[in-house]
Specification:
seven-stranded mixed beta sheet, Aspartate Aminotransferase, domain 1, aminotransferase, PyrdxlP-dep_Trfase_small, binds pyridoxal-5'-phosphate, alpha/beta, 2 domains, about 40% helix, Pyridoxal-phosphate-dependent aminotransferase family protein
Length: about 400
């Protein structure tokens, strides 16, 4: 090969997987089509109109009237860092949970933003107890309280959100909610529940490729951001600068990920067409059939019904099998992605997503059939036929 020849690679042919893991989920064909439409400039009047539409559609999905509602360029962690990095000022006290992987990430980001981190404790696999949150608020008097609405690492939905936000507001703390795995799939009401700042991801229940991630801030939260004494440590995610692009002015800050914004618009249009409440109901119904199937074959859910998270089903790994081997076998034999546990639950649970376009009857029949087959072939004590029968009954 001459020096100037480029590396030789084949045409891109990723395997055709069924995505039932913790995200990304299967993308709706309309969203994929939207991504392949021609680019316009990020300041083109046509794009400015698209930006307005995306903002309006995001408000609908978040259930908010917040003017400050935007897609942040980057993955869910970018929206998370934008939320925390702007709202937390050096010297602030930030109260975060210990009950999962993403609470830990929240703590790490808050520390990097110059905050002093204090914790409200709960075991992995359980939600926060409102009394424990009230005690922690009284003890630490934090400036900011962050929690994870849908903990992807444990399959736990945080119930009693209005109780938590009311307690935080009694102490004049702003509330940041991680809604990455709840937006568009699980009941979420930013305004009614008194959440000051919410961030999310597009690749879970919105079934959109990662790359532009939802964020919303109340006027009060934005007031704090705009009156900071010290500038935000990240230039890229500084909302006082991004205001120039997403606010009235529409002037250049950075080049928006145009195709991702197209994709998000289409994904959010699908949400609006279905109706947000009907969509929450669909996730609960379809994930309920998945849950019936795994329980029917003899497996156990990790979370009790009170805080079961339909978009992420944590299923106990049965005796005699190794979770990683089961996931690898599902990928190999069925082109099916599910995930194993993380952190404190490593080796103990499977994480089976039921998100957005993946939350369909055919997908849950498939995952219950494939999981039962693989577990039985590996010697686990399961009854695959009873599992499939239970899923079919639940779908009727
Ligand atoms: C609850 C939660 N928060 C934050 C993130 C970070 O999102 P991303 O991986 O898109 O950066 C994830 C991703 O899985 C998540 O599940």
């Amino acid at each position: 090969m001459a020096d100037t020849d480029g590396p030789t690679t084949g045409e891109l042919t990723p395997p055709d997987r069924t995505l039932m893991g913790p995200g990304p989920s299967d993308v709706h064909p309309r969203v994929l089509r939207a991504m392949s439409t021609p680019l316009v400039g990020h300041l083109d009047p046509a794009f400015v109109e698209i930006m307005d539409e995306v903002q309006e559609l995001l408000r609908y999905a978040f259930r908010t009237e917040n003017e400050w509602t935007i897609p942040v360029s980057g993955t869910g962690s970018a929206a998370m860092e934008a939320a925390i990095g702007n709202v937390v000022e050096p010297g602030d006290t930030v109260l975060v949970p210990t009950n999962g992987y993403f609470g830990g990430r929240m703590a790490s980001m808050a520390r990097r933003a110059g905050g002093g981190v204090v914790e409200v404790e709960a075991p992995w696999g359980e939600p926060l107890d409102p009394d424990a949150v009230a005690d922690a608020l009284a003890t630490h008097d934090p400036d900011v309280f962050g929690f994870i609405h849908a903990e992807t690492s444990t399959g736990v939905r945080q119930p009693a959100v209005p109780e938590l936000t009311a307690a935080a507001h009694d102490h004049d703390a702003l509330v940041i909610a991680d809604c990455v795995t709840s937006i568009g799939g699980v009941e979420l009401r930013v305004d009614d529940w008194g959440i000051d700042v919410a961030y999310a991801g597009p690749q879970k229940c919105l079934s959109c490729p990662p790359g532009a991630s939802p964020l919303t801030l109340s006027d009060e939260a934005m007031e704090k951001v705009l009156s900071r004494e010290e500038e935000v440590r990240s230039w890229y995610l500084d909302l006082s600068l991004l205001e120039g692009y997403w606010g009235e002015e529409r002037s250049y800050h950075h080049t928006a990920p145009v195709s991702n914004v197209y994709a998000l618009r289409e994904a959010l249009r699908l949400v609006a067409e279905e109706g947000i409440e009907a969509r929450w109901e669909r996730h609960e119904r379809i994930a309920g059939a998945l849950k019936a199937g795994v329980e029917g074959m003899g497996l156990e859910m990790n979370a009790p019904d009170d805080y079961w998270l339909p978009s992420l089903n944590a299923v106990r790994v049965p005796d005699g099998v190794e979770d990683g081997e089961v996931c690898a076998e599902l990928l190999d034999r069925y082109d099916l992605e599910i995930a194993s546990g993380l952190g404190d639950l490593e080796g103990e649970i499977f994480r089976i997503g039921c998100m957005g376009h993946s939350a369909r009857p055919e997908n849950v029949i498939y995952v219950v059939t494939a999981l039962g087959d693989v577990l039985e072939s590996m010697g686990a004590d399961v009854d695959p036929d009873a599992g499939v029968a239970a899923t079919r009954r639940a779908l009727r």
